[in-house]
Amino acid sequence: MNREKVIFAFFIVLALTLNFGFFLGEIENLAHHNVFEFFAAIVVSMICTVLKFGDRTHIGALMLATSLVADLQLVVAAMIWGYGAQISADGVTAEMISSVVSLSGGALLANIVSVILLMVETIVVRR
Amino acid sequence: MSDIFYLLLRRLRQPLITLIVIYSVSTVGFVIIPGQDDQGNVWHMDFFHAVYFVSFMGSTIGFGEIPYAFTAAQRVWTLISIYGTVISWLYSIGSLLALFQEPVFGRMLRRRSFVNEVSNFNEPFYLVCGYGITGSAIIKKLSERGIRSVVIDISQERIDRLEMDDLLTRVPGLCADASLPEALDDAGLQHGSCVGVLALTNNDNVNLSISIASKLLAPQRIVVSRTESEVNARNLASFGTEHIVDPFRAYAEYLSLAAHSPYMHLVYDWLINPYHRPLSSAYKKTSGRWIICGLGRFGKALYHEFAKHDVELVLLDDDARQLKNYKNTVVGLGTEAATLEVAGVREAVGIIAGTNNDADNLSIILTAQELNPKLVTVVRQNLNTNTLVYKNSNADFIMESGRIIANRILAKLKTPLLPVFIEQMQRQDDVWAHTLLNRMSSIASDSELDSWSITVNEEATPAIMAIMGDGDQVKLSALMKDPRHRKDQLNCFPLMLRRNGDLKLLPGELTLLEEGDEILFCGLADASDQMSWSINNYNILFYLQTGEEPSHNLLAKLLKRI
């Protein structure tokens, strides 16, 4: 067992699960989407990105790309939410929360791809 | 490029993760810890404010408690967070700085800038492997002629010296093992403008692999390789290496020329060596018995060259086994008078101290000079550091292999016609050489004699082609006139003319030029500059031919017709 691999896989799967947990629920209902979970999803996703730095293999490049996609989507979602909560006069509207959730859905997809790549790598490299 | 990028990312992994974790923990803390607004109500900071506060707190710019003054619990958390964020920043920046200071990183950066510089070259350049005595001499000469070059050497010290040597053009240098194709490639082996590869390291195997790599990647390119063994020389020749220079053989040839035809030797010396010896040195008697001390690689090369010309030889070596198959041998080092007496030093005309020990060599020369002051002395110098001692040794010839190779290679790079001429010249007798020498001496006297060649064609000599296109003939003598004043002669004369593969030594000055002629000139470098005017500029050549300034615009032509 490789400690580094455990940490690596842990964070990648954690990013997926947190993202999934946030995504789950009615798209327009803010009560179904916890802001702490969203924050955790962003942080873990960023840690995942950094963990994937410096891998020169092809699969490593793909994983980094998926992570960057997830980061991008989540950060944009956070920006929309922040706009709604702080700047917009109407507060967080149903449209805003639905676009935040749908963006996190996109990040979820990227995270799924990331986990698939992780599985592929694990299966191909039997050690 | 990618190497550096990946190294950077890999090294920054840990600090970045630390940064993210500490920032997120601090942010969450501020969101969870209850605060109090200005009316005294319990208030929870939201994520936006928490991130905002932590961001400016981490960098401690314009610190203030927002949006309401903090409660005690919030201040405690702020205290903890300040230390956490500042430490994580210091850690990240510190590891980044440490990375920049690392020698590996520096090497990668230097290599990258070197690769960039070389790949941006758009003029012809030579790739020189090895910046020793030979390499530095060649690069110096090349840069004086405005030819660019690139250097690879295995020792950083020599690359540093390259930076310090005052060269006229900038020569990029890389510290790398030249036997690795990757390093060669970085230095421009596959670059379209690379015209030649010079393998001049002191390791035969490295030179071999450089030549092979070059010949595989660009078969048409000139490859010059130095080698010290017969086997390697044959190997290099087998795959078409253009010039193979063996310092021992080259010097043996050079010396044997001095022994059997001193004038020819002097001509050769003037054409090849930048610092030539005075004409008077040829009068020293050089035919007779020669003593060779030390029968190593150099001694053997000498023996073969001298034997070709039936020179009487006595061979000395302290190892009796080396002398087994040779005649006229004396066992001994030659450092003692007794051994030299046995070898007949009093009747000999020359002695060659060719062992691989500098102290022995000098001792041989000094002892021999005492016994026979008229002796021609040749001494081999092995270490560059001994230059000072050798300079004061009063020896007639100092054999320093690096310079010999450098001169040979330069002569070949300068113009391919020069080696051809030298080969042809050696078939002539010494009287012929004497005449030639007098002519050279009248032109160059004490200055450095240069040589150059021109090819009559549209590209190199547009003026000649234009005049011939007008139906006029151009004589060789026209090129040798001073473009500023046609009554004066330039300090140069033609050595050889090659026309359709036929060689003509010392062509007459009335020879009419034809397209495709190649002419080798020798003379002062200044004359070469002047000549390039007359071969390139139609007006000047017209003036030289006719003595008139040509009328080159339409109006003048019309006026002239009236």
TrEMBL record, chain A:
InterPro entries: DUF6394 (IPR045655)
Record's keyword terms, sorted: Membrane, Transmembrane, Transmembrane helix
Domain of life: Bacteria
Transmembrane segments: 7-24, 36-54, 61-84, 96-120
A Pfam family assignment: DUF6394
Organism lineage string: Bacteria, Pseudomonadati, Pseudomonadota, Gammaproteobacteria, Oceanospirillales
Naturally occurring in which organism (per UniProt): Amphritea japonica ATCC BAA-1530
Protein name: Uncharacterized protein
Automatic annotation (TrEMBL), chain B:
GO process annotations (BP): potassium ion transport
A Pfam family annotated for this UniProt entry: TrkA_N
Keyword Transmembrane: yes
Gene Ontology CC entries for this record: plasma membrane
The keyword Transmembrane appears for this protein: yes
Keyword list, A-Z: Membrane, Transmembrane, Transmembrane helix
RCK N-terminal domain span: 123-245, 287-410
Bilayer-crossing regions: 16-35, 47-70, 76-100
Protein name according to UniProt: Potassium transporter TrkA
Organism whose genome encodes this protein: Amphritea japonica ATCC BAA-1530
